[in-house]
User: What shape does this take?
Amino acid sequence: ATVHQLFLALGTHYGKVYLLDVQGNITQKFDVSPVKINQISLDESGEHMGVCSEDGKVQVFGLYSAEEFHETFDCPIKIVAVHPHFVRSHFKQFVTGGKKLLLYERGWMNRWKPSVLHEGEGNIRNVKWRGHLIAWANNMGVKILDMISKQRITNVPRDDISLRPDMYPCSLCWKDNLTLIIGWGNSVKICSVKERHASEMRDLPNRYVEIVFQFDTEFYISGLAPICDQLVILSYVKEISEKTEVECCARPRLDIVQPLPESCEEISSDALTVRGFQENECRDYHLEYSEGESLFYIISPRDVVVAKERDQDDHIDWLLEKKKYEEALMAAEISQKTIKKHKILDIGLAYINHLMEKGEYDLAARKCQKILGKNTELWEFEVYKFKEIGQLKSISRYLPRRDPVLKPLIYEMVLHEFLESDYEGFATLVKEWPGDLYNNTIIVQAVVDHLKKDPQNRTLLRTLAELYTYDQRYGRALEIYLTLRHKDVFQLIHKHNLFSSIRDKIVLLMDFDSEVWFVFFQIDRVVEELENRPELQHVYLHKLFKRDHHKGQRYHEKQISLYAEYDRPNLLPFLRDSTHCPLEKALEICQQRNFVEETVYLLSRMGNSRSALKMIMEELQDVDKAIEFAKEQDDGELWEDLILYSIDKPPFITGLLNNIGTHVDPILLIHRIKEGMEIPNLRDSLVKILQDYNLQILLREGCKKILVADSLSLLKKMHRTQMKGVLVDEENICESCLSPILPSDASKSFSVIVFHCRHMFHRECLPVSNTVSSVQFCNICSAKHRGPGSAVLEMKK
Assistant: This one.
């Protein structure tokens, strides 16, 4: 058999030749011989055919012309091959193979002239003609002939000579005009025809063959063909029967392998079921292929199997058959430009149906977003499918809300589903969905009907307020929010400028949440609106002050009166923290109301510490507070006033004796105490004074010890540092003359002085000291008042 792009030529054991189309239909029939057809050959045009048979007959004829050649030999002719361009007049050539390889050429007067190309190595087993190269196989190996130079350019010997060449024939295949693939036994060789360099010619052919890949297969080769950079191999398989433990014929295999230099990698493998495979031999199978269509024909005695390269459509078919819809959808999206059979949308819809059948409703709804896209008709169709099975809730989260927008009925249907069974879910959808997706009036009426059954349901009331807001019925929404005391009321007031509508409800608003006022409303406007409610005005300004001391500074003067009237405990903290409060005004109000603590603070802050202290002593009569005040002011005169005021009050003297020991000398107080004055707890106070004194002495001694220890440690550290050597090299300079400190001539004598400060001088450059002491000091450090640095090293040579 042989193959053309348009048909398959098939020869039988009864001498018939059939032409079949790619669907297997017989289109033509030729009676060639009464015996077996051995070989059929076609030219590239598919217009001429060569046939040889077991009785020695060779015929070359035109399928669509009267051109014909007949020849009968005295031996069986196994091989025939017509020139690939036989249709052209100057390429009327063909070769036959029996015991010889003969070339027939049409010459003068349309006569055919035979010439022997090769003989003497047994029967010719296979011939393949490509371009100007003829490859043939005989019992010894494979040869290639260059038709241009009429020279044989290679001989590829047979590897396994133990195999009978008639039972395990050689398979030849041209991948292109210069690449020959040889399969024989279980060996595969890929040969490349190359041009020989001119310098290597001599008496050699101008072409040579290089084996670029060579590897062995697991089974015997019945045929092979190229597919891109890989190989398709038809293998004859034998296996041991499990029942009889005898070797028998198994189903043939069609493998795709990736050739490597010395091995191969199996890409795929398929076992083929053909009739009678148990009786077939290796020679009974043939592999032919059509380059244009990437079709591969497996020929067996009873069957012809057509194989084609799998494409993405085939892969998607397999995935759909295995119900791997997600993988099929992904494969279709990746290869959407190349697939011809499938549509992404159809696969996606099948995937959604599959998920719904499995009960994975949420996943099915989620996939709708990606698969349905902007197709509103499909969206609505799928929503109704979800409704039929009672799963509208599953798809609600994934319904499109913008581009596209579905019919209002779809959204209303989903909202009604939630309203009947899930108030919280209903509220969530109303909050998330834009109000223009559905008929707001219908949904409002439905909520009102449900509220008749459950009038106190806060979720429904809150949702109804939101629906009223969408419908711009702000008054009703505000009324519901106020009833619920819901924080969204402030956002509603601010967003829609409803301040004038809540003047009579300010007290209610302030009662349940005053914090949000600072976020939504202007300070001046709130203060103005609360002018007639000073207690709420105070609450608002107090919280404002707590949030930011400077934001309401223009109202700090007003706040003094408000604090004094409604919140005295926070007045003093306010006076302390405010930097914008008028002190005179505050002092006046505090004095009017006889607020002693606040007045004391204001007097001290205004610099009148004596009056403040006097008020503490006279009004509060609290010696501890007076002492604490004196400590804060840290003023000697203030202590003197405190002692003078306390000298005739025994309880005050006791307090002073117990507390002033660390600030004022107690002797000053003790000397002023009158003789005979009875002072409560005097003994305990004196003991405490002595204890405080002893404690001070101990602290001083401890500090002194620490100071001495630290000084000694630092002195030792300085001594160790100064005792270290100092590096003097040619990079150092004299600080006086600025020349290198070391002479360039090492043989000359020199004298160098180095100070602890690391300044260096030539001895002769250092000024002579006028002091009697022999200690020298660094002039640079002395001039900069860094302290004298005495010399630590004197180098001489």
Summary: The first strand starts at residue 2 and ends at 3. The longest helix spans residues 682-723.
